[in-house]
Amino acid sequence: MRILSVASECVPLVKTGGLADVVGALPGALAPLGHDMRVMIPAYPGILEKLRNRVEIWADPDLFGGPAKAHLGRVADLDVIALDAPHLYRRDGGIYADAGGDYPDNPERFAALCWAAAAIARDGGGDGWTPDILHAHDWQGGLAPAYLHYHGSGGTRSMLTIHNIAFQGITGADRLSALRLPPEAFDKEAAEYWGNLSTLKLGLVKADAITTVSPTYAEELMRPEFGMGLEGVIASRAKDLHGILNGVDEAIWSPEHDDAIAPYSARSLKGKATNRARLIAEFGLGDVPGPLAIVVSRLTWQKGIDLLAEALPDFIAAGGGLAMLGSGDRDLEEAMRRAAHIWPDRVAVRVGYDEPLAHRLIAGGDAVLVPSRFEPCGLTQMYGLRYGTIPVVAATGGLNDTVIGATPASLSAKAATGITFHPVDHIALAGALRRLVALHADRPVWTTMVKRAMKADVGWHGPAARYSEIYGNLTA
């Protein structure tokens, strides 16, 4: 089956978050099942130069204000269609924003991506390749199913994956015509959202199928505390909604073969101790007699970083340490910097992002903390499982679906792979950290849990089979 995957970012070309990892991993995961997936993204600066064997397959002399061309090429093992529209994508800042905030023409920038994707899906590209399925991702891809609906699909079916419903592509109703949507699209049963226009909502209404990135998150989305105002829309499409866990690329995230670390495996954990010692030295920490926890995250309210700041004193007093990598809200960055100032031998913070350093943190930590208030899927806890770095997670979304919490029953059954807590507040997190300290001190139990975590199935085999099933149902 031929599938056109439409997204705003994709590893290894451009990444700001987990969306890029998933979009980049899906084609390779689906290939053994007989699927031919191409990924379509904007040609941000430097993208075209990275594509091998590049050929032009589509063009438009006036795509939302200027000429555009779509180029097909290869990078790593991916077939990529890069939409080159300099007036939309050649910016000096990030892919969504610069120092002044979000680009004001973001609605048009990603509408253009969706328009071109829908045109290729409907009419095919210049090389004769026409997809059976158009698979769109998040609000940036939300208009692609809508364009197929309003302007003709040519028989191509559509699917929309929600990676995080908190981002909904909301813009003013006065943009309806500029986004090439007909008047009837501005309706409470379509794009209208509290007097504005939501590209995500329109995609949810018009896509033939909807997926999200974990079974628990699929259920949560129909509740007001998680649905972010779209819970009614999700509930109305419940029969078309599927929760499919993400996987991780086990070739990239492999403690046995990771070039950034001292290698180790579940059979021999000696290298993990080496990585812990190296990480302590790299972050300038002193003696950490208890568990060394790590955080690799956006520093935001969603990620529960404020809860960690409140729970940290007792954890440090019990012998724990913390090494953190991330950036986000300035107040939370400052709160964590203050913690590092108060406990310089136990807490260290690096503001920013560094992929090799993320690997060293995951390999060197004893535990990875993910205290998110909501988490559609989460990849960090899966990296932790893969590397025997015990996840301490809130019992929500994909965290709940991937980590088996250490309870008397799960420990007795030899099933526990991490520590979970609920409700999601600083009191419950502090309790989870106390359990972490106690488990870490019981070396036989801890070592057994580490080895069990490393054997957890976090790859793409199962998720790819579920996607394949849904594609087949759509085209049956």
Write a compact overview of the structure shown:
Residues 2-235 form the Starch synthase catalytic domain. The protein is α/β, with parallel strands linked by helices and 476 residues long. The chain is built from 19 helices and 20 strands.
Would you spell out the secondary-structure blueprint of this structure?
Elements: E1 2-6, H1 18-30, E2 36-42, H2 47-50, E3 52-60, E4 68-75, E5 78-84, H3 86-89, E6 97-98, E7 101-102, H4 106-123, E8 133-137, H5 143-151, E9 157-162, E10 170-171, E11 192-193, E12 196-198, H6 199-206, E13 209-212, H7 215-220, H8 224-227, H9 231-236, E14 241-243, H10 270-282, E15 292-299, H11 305-317, E16 321-328, H12 330-342, E17 347-351, H13 355-364, E18 367-370, H14 380-386, E19 390-394, H15 397-402, H16 408-412, E20 419-421, H17 426-441, H18 443-454, H19 461-475
Parallel strand pairs: 1-2, 1-8, 2-5, 8-9, 9-13, 13-14, 15-16, 15-18, 16-17, 18-19, 19-20
Antiparallel strand pairs: 3-4, 4-5, 6-7, 10-12, 11-12
Helix pairs in contact: 4-5, 5-6, 10-13, 11-12, 11-17
Binding site for ADP-alpha-D-glucose: 15
Protein name: Glycogen synthase
Family: Belongs to the glycosyltransferase 1 family. Bacterial/plant glycogen synthase subfamily.
